[in-house]
Amino acid sequence: MNVKYLYINTIGCQMNVYDSEQMAGHLALLGYQQTAFPEAADLIIVNTCTIREKAEQKAYSFLGRLARLKRKKKSLIIGIGGCVAQQDGKQILKRLPFVDIVFGTRAIHRLPDWIRQIEKKRCQIVDVELTEEVRADEPIIGWQGETQSSRFVTIMRGCDNYCAYCVVPFVRGREISRPPESIIKEIRSLVSHGVREVTLLGQNVNSYGKKEGLCSFAELLARIDGIEDLLRIRFTTSHPKDLDADLIGSYRHLKKLCRHIHLPVQSGSNQVLKQMNRKYSRELYLDKVSKLRDTSSNIAITSDIIVGFPGETDADFDATLNLVKQVQYDGLFAFKYSDRPNAPAVHYPDKVSESRKNERLQILLAMQDAITRKKNQALVGSIQEVLTDGLSKKEISSKLADGRQPLQATGRTFTNKIVNFYLDAQVESSGDIGTGNLLDVRIEKAFAHSLWGKPVLAQPTAKRVKGVDSYAA
Ligand code: 5AD
Ligand code: SF4
To answer: What span, in angstroms and rounded, lies between the C-alpha atoms of 473 and 470?
Structure first.
């Protein structure tokens, strides 16, 4: 089989990252190897996002730039997948006639057939059917070579919640869950390739399996917790309205479940929450936060907030600031409201001006920045267990005592905080630093978005895992 080159540009969320890996896995069977250079590619795929207007513009501007490559290399195949493809369908071919295939969010497994067809007989294909089938087929390992300590695993697709601002239900379709057996098989396979942490993905993991009568999400977590040589489990996202006692309880008894939850609040004002169709109140949200902290006192909580939703007044925004102050999040993703086609809020009156949205965003981010710094600062002097995730020689300018360039490594704590640390000769020779190992790190400095520390070898955690390559200097 001739080697052909594939370049994938992934825009957007973790689900798109997972989907791109699936595409790469499927296309490897047709002889496509991934390249980091679009100019070298025989097939270019843009996996797109449309959650906000900016993301959509990013996709179209990248696609626009591909016209030049196509003129130079007539055989080049260009595909657009993901949420913009699903949203705009065949309109894309009118706008960008050099595109060969437009495929939606539920067409990934059909991609190889379409590409084979295009290779044989040049034609344009549009496949944006939102099929409702549950796919229990074999998972595809979409990467070759390098060990990674952490991987995403999609456990369900779509969303049935219809928040008023959100395009997801329209571009990712109705909620469907994968059978637990298929998920577990995929995770076992990842673990056999050296993966030590998985992040389970779904728009609302709390409704996992409900429609299909599968096990509950808490039961799924318990089953995954039992997988040998897997060290950590994360998940995202849990909708506050559905966060139940079972899932909260999982933080008490599951050893591998990382003490972190992403629990998007979106707004601290009951009036705005109602308009957003979020189906919970500020009080209910705060109650769930207390229950989480009662169960696991050190649990890290992060959130998403939209500023400038139509009709949001100064008082509404103050209520959001007040909630952020009260909850003391470990991290926050804040967004300016963006009108999306199909989402009901596009028709809502009293749109907030761009300048006011900017102003509110800055105020909110500044408040959170101070909270995050304070929380990170409180960890200075503590010893954190870090799952190592790669090494780099790049960022440290000073040399070690023996004159060598130190290596910097990075990883995350059990509460999902990024820790960078350097490796002196003693640590390097200990053999405990390979990607996918747990290492105790004493935190020496705190920054806005990361921590800095030094591995502690005096009391090793002795959790080195068989089968993971250690780094050879
Ligand atoms: N405008 C701004 N932010 C949005 N999000 C979703 N839709 C929009 C929109 N139209 C944000 C929400 C969601 C996160 C993934 O993106 O906060 O939780
Ligand atoms: Fe969008 Fe709401 Fe579904 Fe999240 S829960 S994907 S915000 S509709």
So the answer is: 10
